[in-house]
Amino acid sequence: MRKLDEEATASTADIRAVIPPDRAQNSGLSLPTMLLGALCVLLAIIAIVLAAVSMNRQNVFNLGPAQTAAGGGSDAQVAGKTWLVMIGHDYGAHEYIDVQGNLAGYHHDLIREVCEAAGINCRTVWDSYPNCWDSQAGQHGRGGQGAGKVRLNCRTVWDSYPNCWDSQAGQHGRGGQGLMNGWYDACTGWSRTRLRDGTFSFSKAFLPTHTSAFYVRRGNPGNFDVDDISGKKIVFLDGWVDDEKCLARQRSITGSVLPVDKIVHVADTDKFMEQISTGQVDAGWAANTLISQGYYNGTILQLLAPTSPEQCMLDGSAMMSRKDNNFTIYWNQGFDKLVESGRFTRLCSEAAQRYGRVGTVACLNV
């Protein structure tokens, strides 16, 4: 046993002789080594932060000049933005297709002049009106502060009106898919209403307001009574401000709140007239300017104004855009310059002569 104990003791001593003493207890790390380690950790943290910022910046979506207008960005960024302005073809002398098949009308002239005054290059985009604002029968519609002269690129694009604001029988009106989905930055010639104002932003108005009226066959063979429309079927222009919600606000008219089966929506003014002239509906409800602005010559349809029409517009026609888009800010800058110089008044007078064969131009007194 003793021999075993001696061997065990010797073995332990041999092991202790091989293993060096614990340096941590005797000496510790030197100062240069500690500083070098701290520096490496700091550099690693900085590298991680920079990598994260870089990845995030790659996923940022630039919504046009919004950053510049709010104080961020630069003139170069704004100048690189291409603005798309939607325009249609069924707005009398304001928007139409001429005999050569070209888009024409007062709105094209206005866009060119305002954008030039603002220092922006504008082009129009054609689309259907409901793609800017969509309202369906029986339902509610839904949907830069730069000090210098910033050069902006704008393009006009043709599209159908429902792509701005859409309205269909039995549903609430809503913002059209074109404007809601960012196909373009603005839609031309749309009026502010209570419903639209909650969905989109609007520029200063460049056309006056109007009230609504009924349209019947010439001579009113059905003896349509503007004061009582109970049980009557009425046709509306899809997406226009004069929808069934506007009619429902006419407190002087009995039966103004129509059931869904008495509401008809059509896409354009030709179908509107057809519904009335063929007796498919009892009357139409639309702007009281359709005959005076040349949509109809008055030989087929007759206008019947309500006894006490109530205004459905908060303001006249303007540029309509999404709330996260600052196009209307730049537009207003150019529009103000046009008004101050007197060019706006002259432009409307010239348009009245140039497009008079198509219809009258509604000039706004400013």
From TrEMBL:
The chain crosses the membrane at residues 34-53. Keywords: Membrane, Transmembrane, Transmembrane helix. PANTHER family: AMINO-ACID-BINDING PROTEIN YXEM-RELATED, MEMBRANE-BOUND LYTIC MUREIN TRANSGLYCOSYLASE F. This is Uncharacterized protein. Gene3D superfamilies: Periplasmic binding protein-like II.
